[in-house]
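Retro notes - structure team

What went well: the batch runner handled both jobs without manual restarts.
What didn't: labels got mixed up in the shared folder, which is why I'm recording both outputs here explicitly, each with its sequence directly above its tokens.

Job 1
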Amino acid sequence: QVQLVESGGGLVQAGGSLRLSCAASGSILNMNHMGWYRQIPGNERELVARIIGGEIAQYADFVKGRFTISRDNAKNTVYLQMNSLKPEDTAVYSCALGRYGIDYWGKGTLVTVSS
């Protein structure tokens, strides 16, 4: 069983940046799916960015050019660098990992972007 703990959320002004971290309690070397998802209150959870096959990064259209997903296998950590934040990015951001799909979810971290 792998536990995931997100950190790095908080309050930021529009145009600002945050870096989210997702620390895994075990090795992420064999994780072929690593992703960040978000849920805006009242909405369905949606994909923000993911790394599949260990190295291919994919992004939702609404974050392309602004967010970057990365992994550090030595630290068992997945990151989400978020730049040029907008008020509509306000949400709870959660990470998810798995070998062939999603096996584990974190509890999430709240990101609030003020206008």
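Job 2
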Amino acid sequence: QVQLVESGGGLVQPGGSLTLSCAASGIHFRVYELGWYRQAPGKQRELVASITKATDTNYADFVKGRFTISRDNAKNTVYLQINKLKPEDTAVYYCSAGLLTPDNYWGQGTQVTVSS
């Protein structure tokens, strides 16, 4: 059974930082493409960042320079470091995994709220 479990969300002031973690089980982690998506209220889910099994990374234009995705194959965990948070970053953040594209398996999501 595949499980992706996110953690690390919370309430943060504008300009603050968070690190989201996603622990995976039930998959051969190191061969999977991984991603982080987010969904704000009333909006569609959108890709934030992805990382290949070769650790090549890709970012949405709206987060470049502020977000960093990384993976630790020894811990079966993917991370999303978020800096300089803005109120518009408020959303539920989901991690994902897939063999070709990171959209076959999904976590339950973790809420990030940016507010003063």
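One thing worth noting from job 2: The CA atoms of residues 94 and 109 lie 4 Å apart.
We'll revisit the folder naming next retro.
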